[in-house]
Design brief:
mainly alpha; globular; cell membrane
Length: about 350
């Protein structure tokens, strides 16, 4: 299964950039009092929802790579290697978070207390899923051992807990609401409550699927057609829900899950422009950390110098998307070829 993972990581990061190019444009349109309707609205909603595959795929791939690093029976993953991975992820996260906070202070005057900035870093503002990724990497030596012996039980437990959190964090997602009692909030993990509700299952799924690929893949192979049908159905339901046509709040949590069971059946050579996606995959963490600044700066410049472009939201979003891909990737490539290449890991992971 590992041969296609680097390219899938690249695809996931491209979808993240597309998602945020549209998301931030909608925010700018709202700030400037402009509406959005018609076929361009429909196209943007469709492209925007594709981004919901992205973080689950990246977490799944991360879990799969941990399984590869922990190969053996019992799995062995040293705490020293985990510490090195955490440092490689943490420093770029801190650097780009602080740059983002400086940018939004300059652009719109957003300022926080020292404790406010600490809270932002802990919960992952604006890099939402990174604290969850750091948490899973931090406990990976333990979770890898549990996954080898009790992988299916682990997935069932995390999946049920995530469903509970979904209905607690997003009331009514399961068709009912929990009683209005503060006692249930005691079951929400500090800091990570919302991110576990959104994505808790995906890192363990990649870990367990990779550790048990030989026994799981033949079983899942018999379910490929239903899984493809379910993925398409849940995706379309979420698009219609986002467009306000129907009410289906749970759909957004379902189609990434059904899709990821199909990963072993995606052949590397069947992925279009696979080498380019693999190249993006190798720089996906740095791209994730840098693209938001490029997107927001692009819309800031449009708003100040060519606000009429907001009347063409689809082409504008696609141009900003391309810029938000190209500028960070060119910057990272330039740094690796410069005398400053020794600082690359410190800056981009």
């Amino acid at each position: 299964m590992n041969r296609q993972l680097a390219a899938l990581s690249g695809v996931a990061m491209v979808l993240v950039v597309l998602h945020h190019a549209i998301d931030l444009q909608l925010s700018w349109l709202q700030q400037t009092g402009q509406g959005l309707a018609g076929w361009q609205f429909g196209a943007l909603v469709l492209l925007h929802r594709l981004g919901k595959f992205a973080v689950p795929t990246f977490l799944f791939v991360s879990g799969a790579f941990v399984a590869y690093a922990a190969r053996g029976n019992p799995p062995h993953l040293s705490w020293h290697s985990v510490g090195m991975t955490l440092r490689r992820l943490l420093w770029p996260y801190l650097i780009w978070s602080l740059l983002f906070y400086a940018w939004i202070f300059w652009r719109r005057g957003d300022a926080y207390s020292v404790l406010g900035y600490v809270k932002n870093l802990l919960v992952g503002y604006p890099y939402h899923f990174i604290p969850l990724l750091l948490f899973y990497y931090g406990i990976s030596p333990l979770i890898a051992r549990v996954a080898r012996r009790h992988g299916y039980l682990l997935l069932a437990a995390i999946g049920l807990y995530q469903l509970f959190l979904i209905n607690l964090e997003f009331p009514g997602s399961l068709g009912f609401t929990f009683p209005a009692s503060g006692a249930l909030r005691l079951l929400v993990p500090p800091i990570l409550g919302e991110t576990v509700a959104l994505w808790g299952i995906y890192f363990p799924l990649g870990l367990v699927y990779s550790l048990k690929a030989r026994e799981l893949t033949p079983r899942v192979a018999r379910l490929r057609a239903p899984l493809v049908a379910a993925t398409v159905l849940f995706f379309l339901l979420d698009v219609l829900h986002t467009a306000g046509v129907i009410h289906a709040p749970l759909a957004v949590h379902l189609y990434p899950f059904t899709f990821l069971w199909l990963v072993p059946f995606i052949q590397r050579n069947a992925i279009p422009r696979v080498r380019q996606f693999e190249a993006v995959g190798k720089r996906s963490y740095g791209l994730y950390l840098t693209h938001l600044l490029v997107i927001d700066a692009a819309y800031f410049l449009v708003n100040h110098f060519a606000p009429g472009l907001f009347a063409h939201p689809l082409p504008l979003a696609l141009v900003v998307f391309v810029l938000a891909l190209a500028i960070p990737l060119l910057g990272m490539a330039g740094m690796t070829a410069s005398p400053a290449r020794g600082a690359y890991r410190f800056a981009f992971g």
